[in-house]
Amino acid sequence: QVQLVESGGGLVHTGDSLRLSCSLSEPNFGSYTLVWFLQILGQEREFVAIIMRSGSSTRSADSVKGRFSISRDNAKNTVYLQMNSLKPEDTAVYYCAASTLGGPRPSQYDYWGQGTQVTVSS
After folding, report:
1. First to last CA, the chain
2. Is the dihedral of CA 27, 29, 32, 37 positive or negative?
3. Closest Cα to residue 36, out of 54, 57, 13, 58?
4. Which alpha helices (DSSP H) does 3-122 contain, by range?
5. CB neighbours (10 Å) of residue 122?
6. C-alpha angle 110-18-88 in degrees, rounded to nearest 5
7. For residues 8 and 19, what is the distance between their CA atoms, to the nearest angstrom?
8. How many whole angstroms separate alpha carbon 20 and alpha carbon 40?
9. What is the spatial distance between Cα 10 and Cα 113, in angstroms, rounded to a whole number?
10. Are 81 and 94 in contact (CB under 8 A)?
């Protein structure tokens, strides 16, 4: 059973930065495509950023381009989401997910973290 554990959320002010981390209990970490989604209360989960198995290919949602970046450390079985220039509209629960195939849709992922709350005050 693959388990994902997230950390790094919190309450910050507009313009601040946060780094979210997500660790996988999976020895074949390098076999997984990893993604971050966000979910605002009462809404569907939305794609934020994805990083392919090799780590050389990433993609981000237009709403976070230039502010958020995704990276992975295969030696530490961890994926990161660096969030800069945070805005109140970034407030959401952020989830990491893993799949051997991957893609931008939540339905493409079998393994999920528990979510971490990010709140950005104005």
Report:
1. 40
2. positive
3. 58
4. none
5. 8
6. 90
7. 6
8. 17
9. 16
10. yes
Q: Distances in Å between the alpha carbon of 68 and those of 16, 87, 90, 93, 97?
A: 12, 11, 11, 15, 17
Q: Is the pLDDT of residue 54 over 90?
A: no
Cα–Cα distances (Å) from 121 to 7, 57, 82, 86, 116, in that order, read 19, 32, 18, 9, 16
Residue 73 Cα distances to 10, 19, 81, angstroms: 22, 14, 12
Find the range with the poorest average confidence among 38-52, 53-67, 85-99.
Answer: 53-67
Q: Is the dihedral of CA 77, 114, 21, 64 positive or negative?
A: positive
Question: Amino acid letter at 56?
Answer: S
Give residue-wise pLDDT tens across range 68-119. Answer: 999 999 999 999 999 999 999 999 999 999 999 889 999 999 999 999 999 9
